[in-house]
Amino acid sequence: MTGADYVLKRTLFALMTVFVAVTLNFVLFRAAPGDATSSLRSCRNCTPEFREALHRELGLDKPKLEQYGIYLKDLAQGDLGLSFVTRQPVWDELRQPILNTLPMVGLGYLIAMVLGVLVGVLAAWRRGTFLDWGGVSTSLFFYSMPQQWFGLMLLILFAGTLPASGIADPFIEFTDPSWWTVVLDRLEHMILPSTTLGLVLYGQYALIVRSSMLEALGEDYIMTARAKGLSSFAIVRKHALRTSLLPIVTLAAITLGFVIGGDILVEAVFSYPGIGLATYEAVFDRDYPVLQGAFLLLTLSVIVANFVADLLYFKFDPRITG
Amino acid sequence: MTTAPAAELLTRDPSDFEEPRRRRHAVWSVIRTQPQATIGAIVLLAFVVVAALAPYIAPYDERAKVGDVFEAPSSEHWLGLDDAGVDMLTLMLHGARVSLIVGFAAALVSMLIGGTIGLVAGYFGGKTDVALMRLTDYFIVIPDIPLMLVVAAIWGRSLTNIILIIGLIYWTTTARVIRAQVKSVRERVYVKRARALGAGHLRVLFKHVLPQVAPLLVAITVLSIAVAIFAETAIAFLGLGDPTLISWGRLIENAFSRSAISVDAWWAVVPPGLAVVAVVLACTMLGRALEDSLNPRLRVGHLSVRHFRLRNLRTEEAR
């Protein structure tokens, strides 16, 4: 199979997954009992007549198949619909939370990746020593903690010294701050949630990096490098780490897809107004267009990230033939 | 499915035709011989026993107010009291039951779904395989916690629903690993011979393929218990757990929403989290040890490692 074939096949797979995701998203939210008119917040005391009118206005009275057609057409034009609650375009509702989430979750994943690669490489290098044992067991320990619980632990420990909730100091704007103060304030608010994410997530990266390193260290060319008399550090850095970077790079690409999704649990613990919290509120409002939009964006970003990971794999590993 | 040409069959070693010895005791022997697996199994068993005996060994009633709000740990109340003055140790013991039931039952559901999809996709291949794997891909990329919230909000917040929701979302790993395994078992000569002798697909699947992948299925299911318990704490934390039942996830949520943090009542937060860590750790250790020795794909990587000893050379240099 040639390179073009591989890329074509991957593209087709990604497109098929997108189509499945788009369709199942529709099924998930339209087949669901209860709609905007049975929402918990927006229409508690509505009369049946008003409910009827609302149904018509939102296009919920048409047959399901016709609704699906309209949904696909709107989607093709980039229209995600209007929020049931605020009547604003879904995209406008989602943009700000996503922008809030990206730096915080991005930082969290960055901490996780750096720590994971560090611990994984050291553990594999010193395999069988106390360092290896300690690295693997702390990784497993952090990996076994519920995110929300670890967040609460950090809150208990640091509640006095670091900002514990929100994205920015609500009073800072009255002090006529410089842009630097604003950035610093934002960063301070990111410390606890990002650290929570980073520490809870690094464990799995460390384990993957470790086994990938061990596999690389078992190859014949490492034996050759040793026979040449290279130092252990040179072997690990130049020969083993380079080859085992491949799964790490693709893992990083896949991870990027999840960054947009934010993290409901961490955002709930630290009241961080990100996309996770927005989805959470949309669930309770039965705001299906917003949920549908959020699901679509999240699934699309993961699919695209996976696609990129596949292509990276192909670019970096000449052995891949599809 | 194509059967091998007669000439090829003739040139094979006769032992190829024999079905590989069923590894009925594979799981048990791993638990006995590998310390990681032994520890994991013992811890898990201990929690199951405690959960089963909870009503008999709990010191107080799980709804009785036995002291002040957020009373600190003392000799009468080892883990202190919660926001309603209920004994935390009692709550922890009762919480173990629900958390473990959800963990085991949801893992079972995911085993049934993932196992079936993996078997069917791997065995039949072709269009069935493609269709089922696209479906699996969708469940992998879908945001899991939001989906659980949506379904929990729609279906209602009963224990059965929560078990079903978790099982219905976390079957993808099982399906993928089993499919890969079945694909290789399907090509073995004894399976082809069984087909050639006229055995139906169902009979081949259940009598010849399933027994070969069963130990691996057990390993992944042990790992999914951990995932399911995590998922339960997440659902409970976001306020969609069964409101009538006490679980570890609910206790964490309770501590958060009743602001145990602001009164420094660490005893209301630490124990449920540590209990989750212990069970998840036990499942992970047991599951990983089982998977390492049962999944041939992993074993190849691990075997090659043993030929290389970087560390020893260094100590020799030092001498």
Characteristic key phrases:
heterodimer, B: 319 residues, mainly alpha, elongated
Topology of this structure?
The complex is a heterodimer of chains A (322) and B (319).
Chain A: H1 3-30, H2 48-57, H3 64-76, H4 90-125, H5 130-143, H6 147-158, H7 179-217, H8 220-227, H9 232-259, H10 264-269, H11 275-284, H12 288-316
Helix pairs in contact in A: 1-3, 1-12, 4-5, 4-7, 4-9, 4-11, 4-12, 5-7, 6-7, 7-9, 8-9, 9-12, 11-12
Chain B: H1 6-11, H2 26-33, H3 35-57, H4 88-124, H5 126-141, H6 144-155, H7 159-169, H8 172-186, H9 189-196, H10 201-237, H11 248-257, H12 270-294, H13 296-305, H14 310-318
Helix pairs in contact in B: 2-3, 2-12, 3-4, 3-12, 4-5, 4-7, 4-8, 4-10, 4-11, 6-7, 7-10, 8-10, 9-10, 10-11, 10-12, 11-12, 12-13
Low-confidence runs of chain A: none
Strand composition percent of chain B = under 5%
Distinct helical segment count of chain B = 14
Which overall shape of chain B is indicated by the principal axes computed on the Cα atoms? elongated
- Please give the oligomerization state of what you see: heterodimer
| Strand/helix succession of chain B | HHHHHHHHHHHHHH
Structural features, described:
The complex is a heterodimer of chains A (322) and B (319). Chain A is mainly α and 322 residues long. Chain A has helices at residues 3-30, 48-57, 64-76, 90-125, 130-143, 147-158, 179-217, 220-227, 232-259, 264-269, 275-284, 288-316. The longest helix of chain A is centred in the middle third of the chain and has 39 residues, at 179-217. Chain B is mainly α. Chain B is elongated. Residues 299-319 of chain B have low confidence and may be disordered. Classes of the chains: A mainly alpha (322), B mainly alpha (319). At the A-B interface, helix 1, helix 5, helix 6, helix 7 and helix 8 of A face helix 5, helix 6, helix 10, helix 11 and helix 12 of B.
